[in-house]
Specification:
3 helices, alpha+beta
Length: 120
């Protein structure tokens, strides 16, 4: 079993947790469907860790830290392993094209730098 944390900034705010909370509070059918997909994939991550593969998870190659993405369409959640049995969900965005937005990757990497610095 693995533990999954949500990235929080220095003030304790997590836009990922806020987004999931907004989906949970929404009355729209589409939001509930996205929440169901996210919940399912987070549960898989807790159970399988790095054994989880496509189509739910994908390793992104060539960056300064090992970075992965959960893929509950149309959303993307960047995450990384830290410590032996823990993962941190760094950020999310709605994917609108076939290519992953490099600005979103850089945002996730910057957050991972911050997380690792504060959680030594």
């Amino acid at each position: 079993m693995y533990q999954v944390d949500f990235y929080e900034d220095r003030d304790g705010y997590s836009d990922v947790a806020e987004y999931v909370h907004q989906l949970d509070q929404s009355k729209q059918k589409q939001d509930k469907q996205v929440l169901t997909k996210i919940s399912y994939q987070l549960a898989l991550l807790e159970q399988l860790g790095n054994q989880m593969g496509m189509p739910q998870s994908r390793f992104l190659k060539g960056y300064r830290h090992p970075l992965l993405e959960l893929r509950p369409l149309p959303e993307r959640f960047f995450y990384a392993g830290w410590k032996k049995d823990r993962y941190v969900i760094l950020s999310h965005y709605t994917k609108k094209s076939d290519k992953t937005d490099p600005r979103e990757i850089e945002k996730a990497l910057d957050r991972l730098d911050d997380w690792l610095e504060r959680n030594k």
